[in-house]
Every structure is written in structure tokens, then in C-alpha cells.
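Whiteboard transcription, Tuesday session. T.W. wrote the C-alpha cells on the left side:
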């Protein structure tokens, strides 16, 4: 069974598939993969204000590290199999 993903265009005009959304401490992190180059992976944050959704970059390296740790923690079993 083939899985379908929602796709968005970022500010660079490139299409990215939304592969995961993880909520933590009032933030929603969105994990994206370039639809043309699966090695191009990025993380953004979803902000909702007055019913409007915005996708923004992360504040700094420490927020990126946190978001990456959340993803790794959620997918620990898969990552362990890959590293074997």
C-alpha cells in the first residue's frame, strides 16, 4: 500500500512532503523531505494565529537539536534497525 503525503512549497519554491508533525511544549514541528531529493530534509515550525497557519524556520541551533531529538525519540526503533 502506497502512502500519500501532503506537499507544501517553501520560500525556496521547492516542494516538500510533510513526513511528520510532532507537538512539544506548545510548538508543532513539521518534518519535511524534498519530493525530488529525499536526502534534502528540513524542519520547520507551524504557527497558528487568528486561525491562520504559518510555516516558519526554527529560532536557533538549540531548537533544531530539540526538534531532531523529538523525531529520533519517536522513531527510535526504526533508527536502530537502520544503524545495524
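and on the right, the sequence the group agreed on:
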Amino acid at each position: 500500500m502506497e502512502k500519500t503525503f501532503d506537499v507544501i512549497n517553501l520560500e525556496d519554491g521547492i516542494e516538500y512532503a510533510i513526513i511528520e508533525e510532532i507537538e512539544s511544549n506548545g510548538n508543532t514541528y513539521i518534518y519535511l523531505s524534498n519530493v525530488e531529493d529525499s536526502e534534502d530534509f528540513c524542519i520547520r515550525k507551524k504557527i497558528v494565529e487568528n486561525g491562520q497557519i504559518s510555516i516558519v524556520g526554527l529560532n536557533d541551533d538549540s531548537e533544531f537539536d530539540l526538534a531532531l531529538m523529538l523525531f529520533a525519540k519517536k522513531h527510535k526503533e526504526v533508527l536502530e534497525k537502520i544503524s545495524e
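Someone added at the bottom: The chain has a mean pLDDT of 88.
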